[in-house]
Amino acid sequence: MKQDVQVSTIMTQNVVKLNLTDDLTKAESLFKEHKIRHIPVVSDNKILGILSYTDLLRISYAEAADDDDETVDVTVYNMFTIGQVMTRKIVTVTPGTTIKETAEILATNEFHAVPVCEGDLLVGIVTTTDLIRYLLDQYNS
């Protein structure tokens, strides 16, 4: 397997993004519509943080024990902003970071997606699913 393949070869370039002014209901809609688990939060394409579907589940789970899930979600979502729920301390990689280095970052941390940035500007995202697909391609070639 090649050791020096850049992450830019496997990253998603057309990234679904959120702004701080968006609400959590929109975030949930984007997660479901695009069947994704992580959405970078940006301002003028400058990375500010990342929101995961798990972040949404955490805030709505405690309230949903006995009530109608959809009503509870909307009520709970209106209590928080994206800025309050997103992860601000993020690790990013550059397009030139190797796939191996990116895999090491994901394997040693408790997250499953890494924004790909040139400086502060978001240019892509790499997930554990992208890495698994890459590995499968290596075995099939």
Automatic annotation (TrEMBL):
It holds the Pfam family CBS. The keyword Nucleus does not apply. Keywords: CBS domain. InterPro entries: CBS_dom, CBS_dom_sf, Diverse_CBS-Domain. Transmembrane segments: none annotated. CDD domains: CBS_pair_AcuB_like (cd04584). Residues 11-70, 86-141 form the CBS domain. PROSITE patterns: CBS. PANTHER family: CBS DOMAIN-CONTAINING PROTEIN (PTHR43080:SF2), CBS DOMAIN-CONTAINING PROTEIN CBSX3, MITOCHONDRIAL (PTHR43080). This is CBS domain-containing protein.
